[in-house]
Structure formats: structure tokens, C-alpha cells
Specification:
19% strand, Roadblock/LAMTOR2 domain-containing protein, globular, HAD_sf, alpha/beta, Rossmann fold, single chain
């Protein structure tokens, strides 16, 4: 972790929040947004990090997509049996935040208006416009999620 990087510092801060909601766009953040959308698969590193986050207490993971839930579930490598995993359309994110009582949100590739407690991360040029933090591509999303999972599970 680069402690001088503002994004890594923000992740360090948000990892300590009592109730965390992690929301990631499927297309363009978890899976590359190129080629045939029906062939898009979530990157393994991101899926593994999300599985860790799903298993943590007081942590909810949302995969955000306009695609049908069943389709997204087939394209992910997630353990859906755990209670912390949700599939939501972009317009359902605020309601989910209220439902789980999230004290902070980490949103990756999702256009949301956050609070000062939140970490909003854009991905690349298309999904990164206007976000306070930005990563270059799905590989960097994986790194970000791994870092967050490690910070969140540390005592």
C-alpha cells in the first residue's frame, strides 16, 4: 500500500467504519467492458476479494448492474449463500444503504453522490468522470478490493 496515495489513505479510513457497504459496477469495474457483453466475466482477483468482504461482519457487498440478477450471478465467482451479497440496479443503491444502515460506502465504478464518509472511485475514462478517486482498469479494481478486504479484516 502506498501510504502517500490519497485513495489508499481513504480506504484505510473507511475500513474502520462500523457498517460498510461496498458497491461495485459489474461492467467496467468487475468485468472488462469490451467485446461481447454476454462473454464478460468478473476478474478472479476482484471476485476473491469480494468473497472475503462478504464474509466479514457488518459488511455488505452489492454488485450493481442493469443486467438481470441471474445473468450477473452466472458471470461472477461469488459465494452467494452468504448473507452480505446483494445484486442491485443502480437506482436501488440508496435504498440498500438505508436498509443495511451503512455508515460508509465504497462505490467502485458506480455514479453516486456520497457523503464525506464515503469513498467514490471511478474506473478509467468512462466510469471515472467526476469521481474523487480513480483507478485505471479492472486490474486496479482488484488491487483496491484486495486492499480494502485486508484492511477491513485486520483487528
Amino acid at each position: 500500500m502506498d501510504t502517500d496515495d490519497p485513495l489508499w489513505g481513504a480506504l484505510d479510513r473507511v475500513a474502520e467504519t462500523p457498517t460498510l457497504l461496498v458497491a461495485c459496477a459489474f461492467d467496467g469495474a468487475l468485468a472488462p467492458d469490451e467485446g461481447d457483453p454476454a462473454e464478460a466475466r468478473a476478474e478472479q482477483v476482484s471476485s476473491e476479494a469480494l468473497n472475503v468482504l462478504v464474509a466479514l461482519a457488518d459488511t455488505t457487498v452489492a454488485v450493481v448492474s442493469d443486467r438481470p440478477r441471474d445473468e450477473v450471478a452466472e458471470l461472477m465467482f461469488l459465494s452467494g449463500a452468504k448473507g452480505g451479497l446483494r445484486m442491485v440496479a443502480p437506482e436501488g443503491l440508496d435504498a440498500l444503504r438505508d436498509e443495511v444502515g451503512a455508515t460508509a460506502l465504497v462505490a467502485v465504478g458506480v455514479a453516486v453522490t456520497g457523503t464525506s464518509a464515503d469513498v467514490i472511485v471511478g474506473v478509467g475514462e468512462e466510469l471515472g468522470a467526476g469521481a474523487p478517486y480513480e483507478v485505471e482498469d479492472v486490474d486496479e479494481v482488484g488491487e483496491l478490493l484486495e486492499e480494502l478486504a485486508g484492511l477491513r479484516r485486520s483487528p
